[in-house]
Amino acid sequence: MSDERGLLETVLGDGRFLVALTGISLALSGGFAILQSFAGQLLPQDSHAIGMDSLALRHAANAHLLGFMFHDRVAYGGTLVAIGCGYLWLTAFPMEKREVWPWWALLFSGSTGFLAFLTYLGQGYLDTWHGVATLFLLPIFVAGLWRSRPENFSFRFIWREIPRESGPARWGRILLGMCAVGLVMAGATIGIFGMTQVFVPSDLRFIGLQPGALAHISPMLIPLISHDRAGFGGGLCSVGCLLLFIARCAELNRSLPEIVAVMGAAGFGGAIGVHFAVGYLDFFHLLPAFMGFLLFLAADGLLWMGWRRRLRAIQR
C-alpha cells in the first residue's frame, strides 16, 4: 500500500514537533545569552542603543555595572533553558501518551512567556533581536498548540489525571508546587520592578552609581537594564506555571525527577551562580533564591525517593 501522506502534514503531525522546535529554540537562545554574557560583550543592538560597547561602558562607569547587566541576562538565559527543556520533556513523555494536562501547561506557560515580551513598554527599549525571535517562534508555538489541542477542552478534565500518592512522592509534589507558586510570585514582583523602579537598594549599592548617574552615561542605559530584568521576571513566571502543572499532574516515573533536576539546574544555576561570578553577594538579595533552591532540592529528592519506592513495589 502506497503512503500518500503529504510532507507538510506528516512533519506537522500532532503538533509535538512544533512544540519541540519551540523548546529547542528557547534552550539555544538561553544558552547563547549565557555564553555571550560570560564573553563580556554586549549585543550589537545594545551597544547601538547606549552609544558605546562594553569596553567603553566599563570606562564610563565601572566593572560592577557591566557585571550587574550580565547577571540579569544570564539569569534570564537560565529560565529560557529551563523552559525549553521542560517543553522537550512534555513532547517526549506526557504528550506522547495523549494526556490532556500538557496542553494546558503549554497554554499558560507559553502565554506568560510570550506576553513578557511586552514588558519593554515599561521603559521603552525594544530589543530587535528579541523582537525577531518572538515573531519567529510565536507562530510555531501557536501552530503546535493548535495541532496538539485535546478533544476535550474542559480545564476540569485534567483533574481526572491527578495521581493519587502518599509518602515521599506526595510531599515532593506539594513542595514542588509551593516552589512553583513562589517562582510565579517572584517573577511577577521582578517583572513589575523591572518595568517601574528597575533597581532595588542592594542593586545600587553593588553598582556604586545612582540612577541619575546612569542616565547621564546614556539615556538608554536604564531602559536596557529594565528590559532584561523584566524579561527575567516573565521567564520565572513561565517556569513557575509549567512546574505547577508538572507537580500537580505528571505521572511519577523516572523522567519526572530527572526533568525537575534539569530545569532546576538551569534556572537556579543561572540565577544563583552568576552572582558569584560577578561578585554580587548581598545576603538578603540572595536569601529568597537560596530558600527556593533548598525547597526545590527537597522536592526533587522526595520525588526521586517516591519513584524508587514505587519501582520496588512494582518489581516485587
UniProtKB/TrEMBL annotation:
The keyword Transmembrane applies. The chain crosses the membrane at residues 17-39, 74-93, 100-122, 128-146, 174-195, 230-247, 259-281, 287-307. Keywords: Membrane, Transmembrane, Transmembrane helix. The keyword Membrane applies. This is Uncharacterized protein.
